[in-house]
Amino acid sequence: MKLLAFSLSLRQGSYNRKLIKLVGQIVQTSKVEIEILDLLEYEMPPYNADVQENPGFPEAAERLKKKLETAQGFIIASPEYNFSYPGHFKNTFDWLSRYRPMPWLNKVALFLSASPSLVGGNRALWHLRVPFEACGTFVYPEMFSLATAHQAFNEKDELVDPAMFKRLTDLVLSFLRFSEGLQYINF
């Protein structure tokens, strides 16, 4: 099985990028292949049906679609912007949802967040579920939100709290078992 992982934060030093890096290390201890993507490599113009019609899908959308098609699922870490997820990703999602079949269809997803706030970006994850589930993604029921993320990492970008790292590890490994079980269902 192959998974893609990416942060919806574009900032290089973001807590969500650090979280995705940790997830990559956890997944590498299993038999699952993981590839970490940087969404800065897939920037797209604002979605416009006229542009889709002529000249067509942006080159970045084509590349990201091909990446998504090679994976059985993905792990996403999102910051919280105004009680939701970042607008640039809504635009990316809108472009990709115009393909037939949609590259999100019949995939599995795990959502994570990290934020300096006391709710850890949790509200963004609830908003993120809606478009994914509407487009046929099997979103894992449990999510992970890291509150006060500005204090959660040490200088090596490891989680300071061993209990929090265990919780993240247990969640990721549980998601992998869930995902592997779904591989055998014919949709």
What does this 3D model show about the protein?
With 187 residues, the protein is of the alpha/beta class. It has one domain: Rossmann fold. Helices cover 39% and strands 16% of the residues. The protein is built from six helices and six strands; from the N terminus they run E-H-E-H-H-E-H-E-H-E-E-H. Strands 1, 2, 3, 4, 5 and 6 form a six-stranded parallel sheet that branches. Helix 4 links the parallel strand 3 and strand 4. The radius of gyration is 16 Å and the shape is globular. The chain starts with a strand and ends in a 5-residue tail after the last helix. The mean pLDDT is 94.
**Beta-strand content:** 15-25%
**DSSP strand count:** 6
- Tell me, rounded to a whole number, the average pLDDT: 94
* Helicity, as a percent range: 25-40%
Q: SS-based structural class?
A: alpha/beta
Kindly report the CATH topology.
Answer: Rossmann fold
**How many helices?**
6
Q: Span between N and C termini?
A: 16 Å
Total individual domains:
1
Computed Rg: 16 Å
CATH superfamily: Flavodoxin domain
Secondary-structure element pattern, one letter each = EHEHHEHEHEEH
Low-confidence runs (pLDDT<50, min 5 residues)?
none
What shape does the CA trace take? Answer: globular
* Secondary-structure arrangement, i.e. CATH architecture: 3-Layer(aba) Sandwich
- Assign the CATH class: Alpha Beta
Largest sheet, strands/sense/barrel: 6 strands, parallel
